[in-house]
Amino acid sequence: MIRIALLILLTFTLSVGAFEQKALAGSERIAAVVNEDAITITDVNDRLRLVIASAGLPNSNEIREKLKPQVMGALIEESLKFQEARRLGIVVEQEEINKAFESVAAQNNITTDKFAAMLTKGGVSTDALKKQLESQIAWSKVVQQLLRPQVEVTDADIDNFLNRLQGTKGKKEFLLAEIFLPVENPGEEGNAQQLANKLVDQIRTGKAPFFKLAQQFSKSAGSAQGGDMGWIQEGQLPPELEQGLAGVEKSQITGAIRSMTGYHILFLRDLRIISDETMPAREEVVTKIGTERLDRLQRRHLLDLKAAAFIENRAGS
To answer: Which terminus, N or C, of the chain has the lesser number of Cβ atoms within 10 Å?
Structure first.
């Protein structure tokens, strides 16, 4: 289900030439150009307001400056996702967007009209929010049409997984959630580290729930579900993450952990000992393996799109 905490604004961009004319007419400034599309300063500010409000962060200059690189990166990625959907001829119907908006309102136990009024009162455009929902739906269709057919889980894959799990009986198994902030180049290091530390502080001081921040900021596979990773066996995580979990008790989070790919914040939701009773069914294993493989394909495809794109970030990082 979609929740308000995960909603992030995406501008439905126009061609650069057409947008330049509109920008000049309306004194609109362009923050970034992504191939033939443009992201405006207004888009960036709208996203900042939405992220701050939905994640429960203080609306201060410090927070806005820390969030700006993350917001710019998200808007650029979403523009690429939208372009890929257009390339494949994927169309999102208005009815689908309306249903998604209704689902968000229902998740917040509020009628659609009251939800729209609440957004407007908070300075968030309902049209902009619906465009973000459109982008989510469009990308999910890209994944299902282009990438999902490439994922295959064989009986041998399932047997190997279960056999490995049998060999871990008596060891610990962690029910984890994760916030993952990737660092794709050295220039992102400082901003990613500062943001990760800020998120840790917000969670530990009770200023923002882990799951809301995961939905807003995490780039991991389970971000839409609040960063859910499911049950992870002892020894299956990279050594730096296992080390970061040492000493963490149930319902606690780790600090910001640097891995080879970025920064991780882990939430230990539960802990148990692996036994016959905890062994997953084959259907659960299929879902787990398939989800992990599909997530890797998504990340790789998005990186390929980014590498092939013309991107000019005029607002800076």
So the answer is: N
